[in-house]
Every structure is written in C-alpha cells, then in structure tokens.
Amino acid sequence: MIVLGIESTCDETACALVRDGKEILSSVIRSQIEDHKPFHGVYPELACRKHIDALIPVIKQAFQEASLSFQDVGLIAAAEGPGLIGALLIGLNAGKALAYSWNLPFVGVNHVEAHLYAAMLSCPNWELPALGLVISGGHTLLVKIEQVGRYKLLATTRDDAVGEAFDKVATLLELPYPGGPHLEKIAKQGDRKRYSFKPGFVKSNPLDFSFSGLKTNVLYAIRGQDGQSGRDLSLEEKRDLAASFQEAALLDLVGKTEKASLQTGCKTVFCGGGVSNNLRLRELFLEHTDLTVYYPEPRLTTDNGAMIAALGYPLYRKEGPHLLNRTPKTRIPFD
Ligand code: KG4
Ligand code: ZN
C-alpha cells in the first residue's frame, strides 16, 4: 500500500509517498526557515500563509518525484497535532479533502509519535518495550514504547523544549536562526568546562526536564546578574559559552535517559527530532551509557512527510480509517 503523508505542524510544508510504511518513494520538504529568520522564531501567522502557498505544489512534486499518480495511493495520512493550530488546519484539511475526493481512507497522525517512528525505521527488527526520546524545537519527552501506538510518558519538559533552548542561546550568541546546528558548530572549538551551567531539577519528577534556567545562566554569563550590561563577546568566549551550554543540556538528556533505562529495564532507545542530529549527543550516549541508540536517517530527523506516511500505515492496519471529522490538536497527551 502506498501512503501519502502530509506534514504542516510548524514551519515545514512537507509531503511524501511511502510504500508499506517503510520504503520512501519521494519526500519533499519546503522549509520556511528563511521567512522566519528576521523574527528569530516561528511567526505563526506567516507560517500559515506559507503553508497555503506551498502545500499543493509540494504534493504535486511528491507525485512527480515518485513518478506516481493519485490512483496509486491507498491511504492518506496527515499530521493532526501537536503543533500550531492554523498550520495544522491547512495540512489536515487538505489531507481530509483529498481522501474525500479521491475516495481513499484517511488517518490522522501524532507528529511527535512520528518523530519516534522515524528512528524506529533505522532498526530493521526492533524489540519492544524500548525507550523513546523526542528532542526537537517544539518537544522534549521521554517515553516507554510498549507497542507502536502505546506509550507510557516518563518525562517531559516543564518549560522550553531543548531545541528551543539551543535556538534561544544561539540568538544570545548572535548566531543565525535556527541556531542549534550553528551552536554545535562553534562549540566544537570551545572549552566545555569553562562555565559550569546547570540544567533544572524538577523535584516532583526527577526525570522531567527544565531548560529555562540553563538559558538564563548563559544570559547572566554574557550580560551580568541584572541581564543589562551589554558587551561584545570575543569568538573564543562565544565558543566556550556554546560548548559549556551544549554539554550541560546534552548531558542532562543522556543522564535522564540512562535513569529511565534503570527504572524500566529497557536498553534500547529510539531518538528522534531535530536535536538528534547533534553529533556531540551521539558521542555522549556512547561515552556515558551502554544503551543502544537508534537515530533517524538524516533527512528524517527534522520535520518531514515521510515519517507521517510511514506511521500512518501501521496505524491504519491497527485502527482502520479515521472519520473525516477529526480536528487539529495543539496538544496531545502522550499516554
Ligand atoms: O524536529 P524539528 O524540525 O522541529 C520540531 O518539530 O520542533 O527540530 C528543529 C530543532 C531546532 O530547534 C533546531 O535548532 C534543532 O532542532 N537542531 C539542533 C541541531 N539540528 C537541529 N539542535 C542542536 N544540534 C543540532 N545539530
Ligand atoms: Zn517536529
């Protein structure tokens, strides 16, 4: 069965055609990064307008690249949340409209679950239960994957998502948006021990994450305790700040995943979302744990339609078609 997957939860308009939940026949991603750069973050109204302009051309391109037509498709899958409400409405309604007019079954897919599934695709024969770690610009969570579609939430963030913290610190360091990859790049030449930054500790659930204090640590290191004194940073200082921040944030992710492994007995981790691109994270998992960690192939780490189409397939086999009255959800509980 060929599944058409549509993604429009945030600032990527994406569409893919995937056979039997595995084989990617085409995957087209139109990123809005350049449009949002002046705002150092995603400007929701602009994101919606750009999705409207891009969606039909992106869907057409996915068919062209796979040399397929709509008659070849057996199922439509669209991300139904979590994400920006206006952005979600566009992709989800397009998916439902195509399913209705082409007389095809439809499924609504959880975008965060799809990030995990993208990592699971890198493992030919996965064994469950396993741990799932989603680390992106909008989400940070740690789950026990009992089955595809059945999860136990172990931890989430109390404030910023880890990618968001990378992006905000990168802005303080005057790096281009989105800052995660740029911060990783300059951190390579930095001294990780120069600043002792501390990620947050959440008493009521020690596995939970909190990155806003860490971000403030960096702000104070640059502008003093009152956050007011402006000064120019040397390249060396920027590198050291980046390296020290990155080390603290990533060690927190690795340490809490290790603790979750001790609690659950799971030794395998599926790790997805944009921050899973970070090579220092991969090194730290190897240096500090004996966990086996699977990451998505590079084009599937950030937002894409292929992960939506891929997860749509097992979801459809398990649940059958979803009704066309599904509405977008800005938040979806993960249990
Ligand atoms: O998964 P994604 O496309 O977006 C959401 O679903 O939110 O991830 C984008 C996030 C951005 O915050 C970006 O800065 C971060 O992933 N990111 C990185 C790296 N590559 C992307 N963060 C740290 N190191 C990287 N190499
Ligand atoms: Zn995402």
Q: How would you summarize this macromolecular structure in one to three sentences?
A:
Helix 2 packs parallel to helix 3.
Could you please describe the fold and organization of this structure?
- The protein is of the alpha/beta class and 335 residues long.
- The protein contains ten helices and ten strands.
- The chain has helices at residues 33-36, 44-66, 85-101, 111-120, 162-172, 180-187, 212-223, 235-264, 279-288, 306-319; strands at residues 2-7, 12-19, 23-31, 73-81, 106-110, 130-135, 140-147, 150-156, 268-272, 292-294.
- A five-stranded mixed β-sheet has the order 3-2-1-4-5, sandwiched between helices.
- α4 (111-120) packs across α10 and α8 (235-264) packs across α9 (279-288).
- The mean pLDDT is 95.
- Bound molecules: 5'-O-[(R)-(carboxyoxy)(hydroxy)phosphoryl]adenosine and zinc ion.
Question: How is the secondary structure organized here?
Answer:
Elements: E1 2-7, E2 12-19, E3 23-31, H1 33-36, H2 44-66, E4 73-81, H3 85-101, E5 106-110, H4 111-120, E6 130-135, E7 140-147, E8 150-156, H5 162-172, H6 180-187, H7 212-223, H8 235-264, E9 268-272, H9 279-288, E10 292-294, H10 306-319
Parallel strand pairs: 1-4, 4-5, 6-9, 9-10
Antiparallel strand pairs: 1-2, 2-3, 6-7, 7-8
Helix pairs in contact: 2-3, 4-10, 5-7, 5-8, 6-8, 7-8, 8-9
Zinc ion binds near residues 111, 115, 136, 273 and 303.
Order of helices and strands: EEEHHEHEHEEEHHHHEHEH
Low-confidence stretches: none
Mean pLDDT: 95
Strand order of the largest sheet: 3-2-1-4-5
- Structural class computed from helices and strand pairing: alpha/beta
Radius of gyration over all CA atoms, rounded = 20 Å
- How far is the N terminus from the C terminus? 29 Å
- Per DSSP E runs of 2 or more residues, the count of β-strands stands at 10
Question: Given the structure, what is the number of helices?
Answer: 10
Strand content: 15-25%
Quaternary organisation of the protein chains: single chain
User: Which ligands are bound?
Assistant: 5'-O-[(R)-(carboxyoxy)(hydroxy)phosphoryl]adenosine, zinc ion
Helix content estimate: 40-55%
Shape: globular
Major sheet characteristics? 5 strands, mixed
